[in-house]
Structures are given as C-alpha cells and as structure tokens.
Amino acid sequence: MITSTTPPAADPQSRLRPARYGIALALAALVIVALIVSSILNYVFLDTIPGRTSLYGLLAVALITLGTFILVRTFNRDRAMRRKHLIRAGVLIGLGVLLWLLVIDVFLFTQSAGPGVAAICALACLPTTAFGLFVVRRMDRNHKEPWRLVLVAAAWGAIVATSLVVWGETIWEQSAQHALVPGPGLDTSLAFMAGILEELAKGLAVLMLFLIMRNEFDDVVDGIVYGAAVGLGFNFLESISYMTNLYSVFSAEGAGWVAAGIQWYGRQVLGLFFGHATYTAFIGAGVGIARQLPSVRQKVMAIVAGFIIAIAGHFAWDAWATIFPIQNTLFGLVEIHLRTLIMTGPFTAGVIALLIFGIRYEGQNLLDQMRKEAATASGAILPDEVPILASPWQRLRQRLQALSRQGLPGYFRVSRLQTAQLDLAMERWHRERKEIDTPLEAEQQLRDRVMQLRHWIAA
Amino acid sequence: MSSVTYDQLRTLYRTLLVFATVGVVILAVGLVEFAYFERPGEGSGVKAHIVGVYQFDPDTKQPVGPDRSEFHRTEEFAAVVDWSSIPSNMIVDARWYNSFGSIEGQVGPAAPTELADKSVIPVEVPSGLHYVLPGRYTFVVERLEDGVPVEVLGRRFVVVERS
User: Fold this and answer.
1) Among B9, B20, B34, whose Cβ lies nearest the Cβ of A189?
2) B90 and B109, same structural domain?
3) Could you give the angle at the alpha carbon of B117 between the alpha carbons of B113 and B121, nearest 5°?
4) B interface test, pick of A109, A187, A188 with most B CB neighbours within 10 Å
5) CA B35, chain centre distance (Å)
6) Are residues B84 and B21 in the same domain?
7) Based on the domain organization, do B24 and B102 belong to the same domain?
8) Distance (Å) from the C-alpha of residue A308 to the closest C-alpha of chain B?
C-alpha cells in the first residue's frame, strides 16, 4: 500500500554521486598541492617565520584534511564500521590539531607574545565564537544541521583556511610591498588579496561539504549556516592572531592588554556576525541555491555569484573602511560602530534577507510534503502532527510537555521523532524535485525509523 | 513542483544575481582606484641612491654607526638619501611607513635640489609613545605627479625588534 502512494525514485541510477566525489577529490588534491607549493616557495625565497611554519605545518594540514574526510564519510557507513572510522578520524584530527597548534604557538604566537598570552586570547574568543555558532545553527528553524558538520565547517575555517591564506598572503604581500607605491594603491592591492584569497580558502570548505555531504546540504538555509560557521571559525583564529600581535607591539608601552581587548571587541563582538561570517554566508547561499537549481549553467552561475559577493564585501571593508575617520574622542566609540554598520551592514542585511526568504521557502515546502505524507496514511506523519511539525514553537511545546511528563529522556525521544519526521519530509521534497541521488529505499528507511521511534515513545 | 515553488527559487536565484552585480561594480571601482594610484607606464627608469639606514643621534641630528637593517625599539634610526642621484626636474619625497601603513617621518615633496640639506630622514616616535613601535618599516623615495606618488625610486626595509 505504501509503495503505491510513495513518489517513484527520482533518479535511482544517478551518476552524479561518483562525479561530485571526483570533483571533491580533485579540489582536495588542489588544496594540498597549493599548500605544498606555497610552503616550499615561502621557505626557499622568503625564509620568514610563516615560511618555516608552512613547511613544518604541512604534516598537520595533511592529517586534518585526511581526518576530516574520513569523519564526514563515517556517517554514511553502517554501524559496525562507523565506530572504527570515527576513532581513526578522531586520532588523525586530534594529532593534526595538536601539531598545528604546537607549530603556531612556537613559531608565531610564542615569538610575538608568548604562549600564556596566546592561551588567554584563545580563551577570550572561545565563548563568543561558540555563541556565534549556536546562533547560526539555530537560524535553521525547520531542519537544523548536525553539530558535527557545523563544527567541521568551523574547524576548516579556523585551521585549514587560515593555513592556506597565511602562505598565499605572505607571497602576495611581499611581492606587492616590493613592487607597488605605498599608500592607497598598495592598500587596494592588499584588500584584493584578502578578499580573493580568504574567501576562496573559506569557500572551499562550503563547496567540499556540498560535494561530499549532499544529504546534509539541503538548500539556501543550510548553505548560509555552513558558510557562516566557516567564517566564524576563520574569525576565531584571526582574532587570536591579531590580539597576540597587537599585544606584543604595545606591551612595552604598557598598553598590550588594551590593544588586545580592543581587537577582541572589534572582531569577537562588533564583527562577530558582520565580518567573515557574513561574507562566507554569501558563498554558502550561492552553493545552497545551486543545490536546487535544475541546470548546470545556473548552478555554476549561483556558486560564482556567491563568491563574487563575498569577495566584494570583504574587499570593500578592507579597502574603504579607513574612509570613515575615527576621532580620538568619546564620539569615536560611536563612529566605530557606525562604520561597521554602514560598511558591512548592507551585506549582512542581504544575507538575512536571503535567509528569511529561504526559511519561508523551505517551511512551505516541508509543510506541503508533510501533508502529502500524512495523506498516504503510512503512519509516519499523522494529520494531527502536521501543524505541530510545521511550527518550531509548537515543536518546542510538544518537547516541553514530554519533559514535564517523562523528564529529559522523554524530551530527547520526542526530539528524535520530530527530527526523523522532518528528515522524511525533506527527503520527499528533494525526491519530488529530482535533486536527490539516494535510492527510494532510503526514504522507506526513514519512514521505518519514524515508526520505530513512535513505538519506542509509546512503549 | 508547483509554479509557486519554482517562482520562489527563481526569486532567490535572481536576488543573488542582483547582489553579485553590485559585487562586480564594487570590484570594478576597486580596480579603477588601483589603476589611478598605480598608473601604468609611469616608470622613469630613475633609481634613487639610498646611502643606508643608520642609528640616529637626536642631539646631533646625525646618523651614527654602520648601515643596518635591524634595530632595537629603543633606538632611533634614520635613512640617508643622496638626492643628487635624482634628476632635478622631478618632484619627489621620502617617507617612512610603519607596519600598519602609517607615515612615521617624511621630507618633501619638493625638487631634489631643494632637499639637498635634508638628506637624513629619521623615523618619528608616534605621539603619546616612548619609542617607535616594533615591526617592519618601509622607507621609500617617491616621484610625485599632481601631488600623487606614482613611482618608487628607491626602497629599503627595516625591522624593529619587539624585545
């Protein structure tokens, strides 16, 4: 009965899956080659501290890349293999992170400000970045992204993307400083450098998630969430870098902590959502819209458009923020906020507009699919449940009712049931739009899971 | 897929393309700005002779010791330029930039002959500070046109150590 009312498989013999995995592998290979080449060039020609860091840091980057790849693929495997791969990925990423932090501490932070200062700066940035990630994930009101992928996105932004740009920017900056006239021309060149290299490095993470984890990358809303998460990760490490650097510059004048504190406020409070998070969210929006577009030409256009807006927004801030003079008076504090609002505010407003529209678009379609599923009488979604599932507040109310009746276990059981039902609606939506490459059995498995959870709650 | 749904996605796509068009305009303005300050075909072939960068004695206003590329932050230092190495029909200046891109010492703009008695160009300590800030300093001798620096005739880099 169920099969007669379930939509047919959209494209059960899809050849997209291996093709996009191939693109992902090619991109990963390009990233690694770029890292190796820039590191060696840096080391041979510049012999700077970042140059040495790049060479010693290669192993750390390779470990993190491999570990990330294994981690995101782990959840596509069966339970027996999952644990083994999780441990493998955890060990690789852990080793990579430790090695990378060691390299950073020894060659960059320690040299400029000392490991103690670096640790304090990192601790200061941790709660604000965590708050940012929490808010960004909560923005997806209908179908939240798994924490593991949000954190993977942030980790890429913090570790891999920053590594890519440190080396690329060293070469660009050194070349520009040796060739250009200091002043506005050089500043413009460096603004192009930051916009292009940093957004490309961050955007690669969003693109990789899109190619490898298509099932967790549903639409424009997901793209904005992943993009903003990458931006927040990047902003985290960049904040530490700027704070420690300014501490070391001004500490001898007795103003080290003041300089670091101003940087913290500018980057972790005022610029938490306005800077990197906004720019990379545009890349995510482009990739997310491309996810649902029918033609390859439109997909490419959407992705390129996302990158262009991100690069332009980043460039505009770096090149023209100094147009707004900040007075050395109390009013200067107001001017600092106004500058951020005027320069980055329009871009953030653009992302919010896309997000709100995307949430409405997603919500309406999920509601439509839930109604259709309820009409099949499969039992996975009951007609009475549709209005509850369609409203985040009603879903919360239902979970809180379970909490008052059965405590935390009851809350989590209902939460899992709601998530499984929304997963089913999302799967149906993608299948109806012929933008999914999992077999029809996957949808039935989701339906079975909902029924299992329903029985579990009833028991 | 209903026509309403298709319109919604199309609206999102078109909104993104509109934003991207604005982005292209911003980047184009940036390129124009870059081209204005880095004018093509401005190479004169002239090289300014920077004699060296030396520790600076603020009492005698004279350089002391050997030519160096690294200084302690408590030391004052200055560049010495041989202005006679530049044709007299040019308008030039010399500037020190700190690692934040701020100008920390300057002579000119003027004809090289008018700068003959200003061959020593010291780095200035920023107001409110006791010493120069650590970091990488850039010294440039520039040729100007209509008040805009268009060519670097000579360049030196100096590192001021943190400790």
Assistant:
1) B34
2) yes
3) 110
4) A188
5) 16
6) no
7) no
8) 6
The answer to whether B32 contacts chain A (CB < 8 Å) is no
Rounded Cα gap, residues A270 and A286, in angstroms: 25
Q: Is B22 on the interface with A (CB under 8 A)?
A: yes
Chain B: nearest CA to A188, how far in angstroms? Answer: 6
Nearest CA in chain A to B39: A185
Structure-model confidence comparison of residues B54 and A112, the more confident one: B54
Omega of the bond leading into A8 within 30 degrees of 0 (cis): no
Task: Say whether pTM exceeds 0.90.
Answer: no
**Does any domain span residue B44?**
no
Q: Is residue B86 domain-shared with residue B153, that is, in the same domain?
A: yes
**Number of domains making up chain B:** 2
Owning domain of residue B124: 49-161
Average pLDDT for residues A277-294, to the nearest whole number?
93
Residues B73 and B144 both lie in one domain: yes
Across the interface, whether the CB atoms of B15 and A286 are under 8 A apart is answered no
- Specify if B43 maps to a domain: no
Q: Annotate A162-208 with DSSP letters as a single string.
A: HHHHHHHHHHHHHHHHHHSPTTHHHHHHHHHHIIIIIHHHHHHHHHH
Residues of A in contact with B97 (CB under 8 A): 182
What's the pLDDT at B1? 35
pLDDT in tens, A430-454: 888 877 766 677 778 888 888 888 8
Cβ distance A182 to B138 less than 8 Å, yes or no, reads yes
Of the candidates A249, A198, A230, A423, the residue with the CA atom closest to the CA atom of residue B132: A249
pLDDT at A233: 92
Q: What is the ipTM of this complex?
A: 0.86
pLDDT in tens, A75-98: 766 666 777 777 778 778 777 766
Interchain contact, B12 vs A289, CB within 8 Å? yes
